[in-house]
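In response to a reviewer's request, we include the raw inputs and outputs for one of the modeled complexes. The two entities were modeled together in a single run.
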Amino acid sequence: MRPKLKVWVTFGDRLKFGDGRAQLLELIAERGSLRKAASELGMSYRNAWGYLRELEEAAGFAFLERVPGGGPSSGMRLTEDAKRFLKRYRQFRNALEGDMKRQFERTYSRKETS
Amino acid sequence: MRPKLKVWVTFGDRLKFGDGRAQLLELIAERGSLRKAASELGMSYRNAWGYLRELEEAAGFAFLERVPGGGPSSGMRLTEDAKRFLKRYRQFRNALEGDMKRQFERTYSRKETS
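The model returned the following structure tokens for the whole complex.
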């Protein structure tokens, strides 16, 4: 028997940011392309773009920017605000993963007959 | 912005026990009937029954028993093992909910410019 966890931060009633969206941002940063990142995750470009627009509106800052100085083939990158947001989400999520293991141990390691 | 959590305990690769199933067990205990409990949660009796059989097999103990001494209309109840299992899940889950709030506070209350 093992514990399992899903964590999100939510904006309002509807918009959620969790592991899947964190992975999308990380892939955009790696590939320099929203289109490539979405495609690798099996998302449509349209969905990924729509999600990011909603996220930017809810968070109140831009997540993506064009790499400056490049030609038409130059790519996208995360803004500093987006990097900070992503880093905090990872910290939050990883800390909670540790808490989960500790709480599970504490709750379930007691003898079944107790 | 608010944090949100889902927690399960898993058996093997496939079988999960989380809030929805905990609610099913609680409703069975309240109503004395798997059929009524499943129906209130919008589950088919067949699905609820199948799930509980799998859970019993994975956990290695019975979750449900007939109330003894009754006639054909007497109901179902949770076994002592099932009550203990459910109580532990609730303890684990609630403790983690508290951890989540604390970790969220710790991670996100720092100034955005830091």
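As requested, we also summarize the result in words. Chain B touches chain A at residues 1-11, 16, 59, 84, 88, 91-92, 95-96, 99-100, 103-104, 106-108, 112 (CB under 8 Å). Chain B is about 55% helix and 15% strand.
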